[in-house]
Amino acid sequence: MTQAHNALNKTPLYDVHKQLNARLIEFGGWLMPVQYSGIIEEHKAVRNAAGLFDLSHMGEIEVSGHQALQFLQYVTTNDVSKLVEWQAHYTFMLYPDGGIVDDLIVYRQPDKYLLVVNASNIQKDLLWLKETQTLKGFDLTIRDRSWATGLISIQGPKALEILQPHVNIDLNEINYYHFTQGQVGDAPGLIARTGYTGEDGFELFVNRVYTEKVWNLIMEAGKDQGLLPVGLGARDTLRLEAKMALYGNDIDAGTNPLDAGLAWAVKLDKGDFCGKRSLLPVKQAGPKRKLVGFEVKDKAIARHGYPVAKDGQMVGKVTSGAPSPTLGKNIGLAYVPADMSAVGTELDVIIRDKTYKIEVVKTPFYTRPGKAKKAPEKN
Amino acid sequence: MEFPAELKYSKEHEWVRLEGDVAVIGITEFAQDELGDIVYVEQPKVGDEVRQNSQFGVVESVKTVSDLYSPVSGEVVEVNDDVTSSPEHINKDPYGAGWIIKVKVSDTAELDSLLSAADYKEMIGQ
To answer: Using the beta-carbon criterion (under 8 Å), do A39 and B65 form an inter-chain contact?
Structure first.
């Protein structure tokens, strides 16, 4: 195990995680904390107080040059022309057949765009961006800033109050899915009101060399307010409760955003983009299958890859599943035929050759108290 | 971590406590710690036959599914219903309230192939 770990990338917080006795696992080529004190405790800390996440493994790619907007309009699905400076949105890169290269967030800065992509897809995305650039002859610069960038996220109802005394800007002035330049302690960086937990929170992009300092500053600031370090285990249960897709589980090259219920991040009326021609017929006829949320009507846990059946026939597959610490139920996401996707539909899931009842339920499974209804979120 | 000297251990991280000809079986402190928060246990039924080194159940944490292997052969005479309803007993008290099944041992010689506490600790590098 130790030997294999030597080949893995380590974030600038690796030593901090070791000191915190985190359980480290391989994730997308990185050695990452899956848990510190325990997944359930960490999950509840984020819902009730706040949690701190090391997301330095995620990819940061900068796109600049006079054709950057045109290029991003072609290579991503959301309408980049709608972004004002210091605003961000969730979007996709698609293959020509409509399959998903990656899901990402595009942040618009005055002189460039920042693309935040999944850790396991950094190399694939870079190649895809550069290939598209060459193929279409766009004049622009693509820079991989992943290694140089540390990313720390603080999420939860107390995130703002813990972070505010240590930044040089008024956090209340940053709207959801907006960001700004600022300083955390003495570290300059970007402060974004984005997240992947269903809670209010902030993501802090700082240079790799400042990451440990920023982490320690915030941990210290929040220790009396219930702030806990949170690993990938709770990150997964948090995002699942908020029904945010996970690349490699719920979406991948074999799925498209319309089947996944993420059409809000695909603007078919914005002009041509890669994958559009394949999505138009899906849009017209309606998706044949849909990603739905379900509850298991039993104590069993339906996990990624388990078959979904109706009347003994295989009809779909679970893409994500876990016990929900907030709801105290076993929940999940599955692709099922469109005519079986209505809320209240009863289906079966096969777990170790046994059949268990599931019911299609309304999603997100969890919405934070007082949150106004608006566009779904995702990091 | 604790590994009581009076117990026998399997390479699959189960422990056995012999009470007469009945073996009480659970998972070790190391195993529960590796798994993290345990949320689901699937046990055999009373009367089922289990065989040494064969799967007899499943234990699931939030993140993972792990098979349970019987350290001895015999008939299941009792299952711990408390861990079915409150699987966290396995995390909190793996050698006590967190026991999983009791098996009437068909061949006590099988216990000789199991590990002592010292051997088990060495195996897991403790």
So the answer is: no
Picking from A39, A299, A300, the nearest residue to B62 by CB comes out as A39
- Helix ranges (H only) for chain A are 2-6, 14-19, 39-48, 68-75, 122-136, 159-163, 211-222, 232-241, 276-285
Encode pLDDT of B4-45 as tens digits: 999 999 999 999 999 999 999 999 999 999 999 999 999 999
Spell out a b/e string for A269-302, using b for 16 or more CB atoms within 10 Å of the CB, else e. Answer: eeeebbbbeebeebeeeebebbbbbbbbebbbbb
| A44 lies in the same domain as A151 | yes
Other beta carbons within 10 Å of A63? 22
Class of the CATH domain delimited by B8-106 = mainly beta
CA distance linking residue A96 with residue A115, whole number of Å:
20
Distances (CA, A) of A295 to A236, A316, B60: 17, 15, 17
* Residue indicated by tokens 């009480």: B24
Nearest C-alpha of chain A: how many angstroms from B67? 11
Q: Which residue of B has its CA nearest to A323?
A: B62
Chain centroid to CA A277: how far?
Answer: 26
- Test B37 with A303 for CB contact under 8 angstroms: no
For the stretch A236-267, pLDDT in tens is 999 999 999 999 999 999 999 999 999 999 99
Residue A135 within a domain = yes
Q: Angle A309-A312-A318 (CA atoms, 0-180°, nearest 5)?
A: 15
Instruction: Say yes or no: A52 and A158 in one domain.
Output: yes
| Residue A153 and residue A113 share a domain | no
Per-position DSSP letters for A7-25, written without gaps between them? TSEE-TTHHHHHHTTPEEE
Candidates A39, A299, A322; nearest CB to B36: A39
Q: Calculate mean pLDDT across residues A27-46.
A: 96
Q: Which residues pair with A333 in a beta bridge?
A: A293, A320
ipTM strictly over 0.95?
Answer: no
For residue A290, the distance in angstroms to the closest alpha carbon of chain B comes to: 25
**Host domain of residue A320:** 288-361
pLDDT (tens digit per residue) in A121-140: 999 999 999 999 999 999 99
